[in-house]
Amino acid sequence: MKSIEVNEEGCLLFDKNEKTKEGSRVARKALKKAINRKKVFDIMNGVSESDKRLGIIYIDFDEIETFVFKGLNALTEGVGMVFFHEVSHAFFHTKDPVHNKVGHDLGGAVKFTNKIRKQMGKDFGQKTSYYPFTREQFYKSEKGYPSFIIYGPQSLRDAKNKQKPTGNYIMYYHQE
Q: What single string gives the DSSP state of each residue in 23-62?
C-alpha cells in the first residue's frame, strides 16, 4: 500500500485495488484488516501498549528515538514495527509472554512482527527475546543502565551467559 491517507476525522484510507509486492505481505494484510474493522483506535504517545477497552494504541516515540542499532536496519524496531506489535494485540488478540526471562518465550506479538521482519529482509533480523537484557554490571551513565533488545542467536547466547551482546541488538538506556 503506497497510497495511505488520513481523512478529516483522522481515519486511515487506502486504495483496496492497489497491488504491490514491495515490503511485507503480512504487514499489508494486517493493516488492511485493522483499517476495515469497525472499532476505531486512537494512536497516542506513551509507554507502548494497547488498551482495547479505551480503544487506544500507545507508542513510546521518545524511547524509540533513543535506540542505537547494531547490525540491524533502523526500522527493525521503529514506530511502524511497534505499531504492528500493538495492532497484533488490539485486533488479533496476541499475548506477550508472562515469564520475565531473556529468551524464555517470544509471545504471539513478537512472532507476528518477526514474520514481517523476515519479509522485509535480512537486515531486519529476528527478535530472539521478548524481554530486554539489562545489565547494571556493565556501567551506569547519566542516561541510566544499558538495556539490549536481542536479535539473533549470538546475542541471545551472550545474554544467557550474562555477557554484553556481540551479535545484532538494539541498545537503549533503562532509567530507574
A: S-HHHHHHHHHHHHSSS--EEEESSSEEETTTTEEEE-HH
